[in-house]
Amino acid sequence: MGFRKDFLWGGATAANQCEGGYNEGGRGLANVDLVPIGKDRFPILAGEMKMFEFDDEHFYPAKEAIDMYHHYKEDIKLFAEMGFKTYRCSIAWSRIFPNGDDESPNEEGLKFYEDMFKECRKYGIEPLVTITHFDCPMNLVIKYGSWRNRKMVDFYEKLCRVIFNRYKGLVNYWLTFNEINMILHAPFMAAGICFEEGENKEQVKYQAAHHELVASALATKIAHEVDPNNKVGCMLAAGDTYPYTCKPEDVFEAIKRNRENYFFIDVQSRGAYPSYALKDLERKGIEIKMEEGDEELLRNNTVDFISISYYSSRCASADPEVNKKTAGNIFASLKNPHLKASEWGWQIDPLGLRITLNTLYDRYQKPLFIVENGLGAVDIPDENGYVEDDYRIAYLRDHIKAMKDAVEIDGVDLLGYTTWGCIDLVSAGTGEMKKRYGFIYVDRDNEGKGTLKRTKKKSFYWYKKVIASNGEEL
């Protein structure tokens, strides 16, 4: 059987990690521009340290990134050469509304994305557009406190109405918020939240999450009204958490960790706050302020499909002694003794992808879409800029096999697969360029030096064959 005939193969990027042009075309400043590389990155991501304007002590990789703002035609042409059926990209909110609360949108920003989507269409590539991939105009952060403020729902609604109408017929697949659960782990990066002295951080995070969930439901409603062909998905940073041992306490600890993630998707996909979450919030003394109509809005506007990023599985133990953490993205986890790890400490678990897909499909019975999966690695190019990245091919091959098993053997309904960072870009976690994911090498280093020249890696030709054979030739 294999994958459906119209399976959407492609790659994924985020505006703030590839576009650059931070002060061009009328664009305003965003939270994601202000996260530097280096030791202060994590305290800033976490909302523990304020960075509301650029200083001279830090380097800010998102300001220029890989300058896709000026290179998008060349880049999309390369994606087309690989045979992409879809390209997942995101809109920089501050390109459309530079301050977030502007009366009218910025035409130059609207035109930029219109041209980009038309460029995709020229090659038969379906744009899959993330409305908010961690972006929040800085003016909204400074003036309103970002998503902790209910007014954000109105600003987001305005953005949605503008883009759904403007790109009607050009874009049919939308994601409301990238990795919505990341608000719990990196609140400033994910939602522009910076904590004030003495604030109840959990209260702030969950209230902000409620506002995002309401905004997501509203976006889904508007998208369907503007164009019945629109399909709207939610987006989860996924990866099942396993019990560290078969001790019942460990099993239950894993259930709790998984629920922390599913909570968001339970609301977006099932339309209500799950009972375990309500109990948990009550225990923590967190009171979610809901407005009249919120529950009805959530109930009546669930998503059409569920999209995920998957890089690794995780482990949980109830034993405080065992909880010696390992690295692995922004999520800390125990080391799984049965798995190898990447250079950045992420545990490589292809079967975990199949397990995660089954968990989500069993839970929601809605079509799934893998919109991020890949291996961050140090690539060493030869004198011509060519990279022989067999390690990346091996990683992707194993994950595609696992995804195929989920479809063929387990009957999971899967819409498509877009690898993360199909062209090298700035890492969201570390801000590095040397942590590369792409099929296309970009000559740029962690300090922002390099020619920006694009060169096809070995994996470029491999992925082209995978797509051409609809996943039969791996």
From TrEMBL:
One GO CC term on file: cytosol
A Pfam family it matches: Glyco_hydro_1
Gene3D superfamilies for the chain: Glycosidases
Family: Belongs to the glycosyl hydrolase 1 family.
Domain of life: Bacteria
SUPFAM superfamilies linked to this entry: (Trans)glycosidases
Active site per UniProt: E372
Species this chain originates from: Clostridium isatidis
UniProt keyword Membrane present: no
Protein name per Swiss-Prot or TrEMBL: 6-phospho-beta-glucosidase
InterPro entries: GH, GH_1_N_CS, Glyco_hydro_1, Glyco_hydro_1_AS
Signal peptide boundaries: none
Keywords: Glycosidase, Hydrolase
Example of a GO MF term: beta-glucosidase activity
GO biological process, one term: carbohydrate catabolic process
